[in-house]
Amino acid sequence: QVQLVESGGGLVQAGGSLRLSCAASRSIFSINAMGWYRQAPGKQRELVAVFRSGSKTDYADSVKGRFTISRDNAKNTVYLQMNSLKPEDTAVYYCNARVVAGPSFDDYWGQGTQVTVSS
Questions:
Q1: 3-state secondary structure of 78
Q2: pLDDT tens for residues 42-91?
Q3: What's the distance, CA 37 to chain centroid?
Q4: What is the C-alpha to C-alpha distance for residues 63 and 48, in angstroms, rounded to an integer?
Q5: For the residues 84-102, what does the mean pLDDT come to?
Q6: CA distance linking residue 32 with residue 52, whole number of Å
Q7: Which residue of 9, 30, 71, 83 is 20 to 30 Å from 15, comparing CA positions?
Q8: What pLDDT does 53 receive?
Q9: What is the full DSSP assignment across 54-74?
């Protein structure tokens, strides 16, 4: 089991910045992939940024060059620094942790944090 606690969402004007935090209840070394997804009203949840095995990172094309995922292993925390925010970044952002066990895996989700970007 992994509990995830998110923080850092809010309201910001276009062009502004926010930093999201996601604290895990166990060592992130024991988690195979950890990152951020988002879901806008009426849309499917989509990947934003993720750490995969080791330190490999993946980003959605729409956020490359603007968002940066990072982590603090000592705090079991993953961050999402969001710069140059656009109104289309408005969504509920969810932290995700994936733990692989043999041929299967378990996905754990945070409660979500609202990010609203005004134009």
A1: strand
A2: 999 999 999 997 689 999 999 999 999 999 999 999 999 999 999 999 99
A3: 5
A4: 7
A5: 96
A6: 6
A7: 71
A8: 77
A9: TT-EEE-GGGTTTEEEEEEGG
Higher pLDDT, residue 1 or 17 = 17
pLDDT level of residue 20 (50, 70, 90 thresholds): very high
End-to-end CA distance of the chain: 40
Determine the residue type at 14: A
**Sign of the torsion angle spanned by Cα atoms 26, 102, 56, 14:** negative
Q: Are 33 and 53 in contact (CB under 8 A)?
A: yes
Strands (DSSP E) found in the chain: 4-7, 10-13, 18-24, 33-39, 46-51, 57-59, 67-72, 77-82, 91-101, 104-109, 113-118
